[in-house]
Amino acid sequence: MSETTPHQHHAIDYVEITVTDIAKAKRFYAGAFGWQFNDYGPGYAGIRSPRGDSEVGGLRLDESVPTGGPLVLLFSADLDRSVQAVTDAGGQVVNGPYEFPGGRRFHFTDPSGNQLGVWAEQ
Q1: DSSP conformational letter for 39
Q2: Does residue 20 contact residue 64 with C-beta atoms inside 8 Å?
Q3: Contact (CB, 8 A) for 56 and 15
Q4: Is residue 108 within 8 Å of residue 85, measured between CB atoms?
Q5: CATH architecture assigned to 76-122
Q6: In angstroms, rounded to a whole number, what is the distance separating the alpha carbons of residues 46 and 61?
Q7: CB 74 within 8 A of CB 95
């Protein structure tokens, strides 16, 4: 039996926002926009979908916020093929692939230097 997934291959799927204080960021986004969160320890909070059935992004703790803004993540039905497609198209893998709770992912830069990520379910 095949399982269905709400994710679409190579579509924008998730946005990570780097923050320097998780609690303060959660208070801000909850107060400003009504966002709710799933906590994954002191360094990460998932941003719940408005429908409440999934996540649309996350708050990731770091010492500083990198230039360039949030990290956009694409979904992949086949992560290894996506790595190959990125490198074949002229991108450069800068991190991974690596495992995380729920799947695997890698980060890459495009020819202009923009960094994005691609993830796949386990």
Answers
A1: E
A2: yes
A3: yes
A4: no
A5: Roll (3.10)
A6: 12
A7: no
> What number of other Cβ atoms are within 10 A of residue 10's Cβ?
13
The overall pTM is greater than 0.85: no
Cα 100 from Cα 16, distance rounded (Å): 14
| β-bridge pairing 71-75 and 115-121 | parallel
Q: Following DSSP, what letter does each residue of 73-120 receive, concatenated?
A: EEE-S-HHHHHHHHHHTT-EEEEEEEEETTEEEEEEE-TT--EEEEEE
pLDDT (tens digit, 9 = 90+) per residue, 20-31?
999 999 999 999
Q: Where are the domains of the chain?
A: 16-65, 76-122
The pLDDT tens digits of the residues spanning 17-69 come to: 999 999 999 999 999 889 999 999 999 999 999 888 899 999 999 998 887 78
In CATH terms, the fold of domain 16-65 is 3.30.720
